[in-house]
Amino acid sequence: MKKIFIALLLAIPMFLVATAMSSSAAQSSLEIRLVSTEGIALKEAATKSSETIRTLKKGEALKITNEVIAGWRKVQLDAYTYAYVNNTYLRQIAGYTVDMPAYGEMRLAASDTTFKTEPKQLTVSMKQNDIIVQRSNTAKSVLIETLAGHKGYVPNSSIKALEPTIRQVSLKDGIVVRENPSPKARVMYTLYPNTAVESYGQVPGGWRVIFHRTKVGYVAAEPMVAVKPVKRYIAVNKAEVRSVDSRSVDAVTDVLYRGVAVDAYPSSNGWSYIQNGSVTGYVPTSQLAATAQ
């Protein structure tokens, strides 16, 4: 779900994923640089002989880390996967950085699948059409997390896309988000009235699965109503799109510029969930206007 300038659908080997997780913990923001030459190779490892994932176009924006290995710059493709590019061919954009989010993508199990958990290697299973979270991907497998909290690698063919619907809180006092689908489960926080969130269907017991503030949560299904967006335009020079509806969390995932049209779902907490192609997330409602400026 959420990229800067371009969407990268890439396959990265498993050992790079492990490296990526340790690196992301140490670095809080990433610099944006542009590819300066047409046809530069994006590599799986920091060597010229490693497999080429694809070739890059001149002017492509990449999120770079501060790690350079023998002239190869480590770049971030999503929250958990990394690749390498020759550092010579990256052009700096003065002062432009983006905070590193920590999120996954919601998926459905395509079939009944048994897998080993990481790191304890326990044997667990997921059932066809179970809702899961994809945390990263490799050439042949994906790291998934079940809603029960089990993490492990499964074949790419064992998961399929799950597109969200956008729903808003209809209760005037808001609604609590719980850690599990039970009235006795721990309350994580409260959603404000009219807050729009990504909904990924219902589970037994009258609970709706949502993905909000980079986490999976559960809310009572009935008060979450489907709504239509309103057309709005970015009214500031540069609007930072965040994965959470808060300035207190470093979670900038995209940037949109003045005059760009978006589908918006305003809420009473001063934030609007917006959509613009592959760009989705939250911006302050004050940065939106009813007409292009």
How would you explain this protein's 3D organization?
Helices cover 4% and strands 52% of the residues. By secondary structure, the protein is mainly β. The protein has 4 domains: 86 residues, SH3 Domains (SH3 type barrels), CATH 2.30.30; 57 residues, SH3 Domains (SH3 type barrels, Roll), CATH 2.30.30.40; 62 residues, SH3 Domains (SH3 type barrels, Roll), CATH 2.30.30; 60 residues, SH3 type barrels (Roll). Strand 2 and strand 3 form a beta hairpin. It is flat. The N terminus is likely disordered. It comes from Caryophanon tenue.
Main attributes?
293 residues; mainly beta; SH3 type barrels; 5-stranded antiparallel sheet; 1 helix; 4% helix; flat; disordered N terminus
Describe, in short, the structure shown:
This is SH3b domain-containing protein. This protein has 293 residues and is mainly beta.
How far from one another are the termini? 28 Å
- Spatial order of the strands forming the largest sheet: 6-5-4-1-7
How large, in whole angstroms, is the Cα Rg?
20 Å
List low-pLDDT spans.
1-28, 94-102
Portion of residues in beta strands equals: over 45%
Shape: flat
Mean pLDDT: 80
Number of strands: 28
CATH class of the largest domain: Mainly Beta
CATH superfamily assignment of the largest domain?
Answer: SH3 Domains
CATH topology group of the largest domain = SH3 type barrels
User: How many distinct helices?
Assistant: 1
Helical fraction equals under 10%
Q: What is the domain total for the residues? A: 4
- CATH architectural category of the largest domain: Roll
Order of helices and strands: HEEEEEEEEEEEEEEEEEEEEEEEEEEEE
Structural class label: mainly beta
Main beta-sheet annotation: 5 strands, antiparallel
InterPro entries: Cell_Wall_Dynamics_Protein, SH3-like_bac-type
Keywords: Signal
Signal peptide: 1-25
Protein name: SH3b domain-containing protein
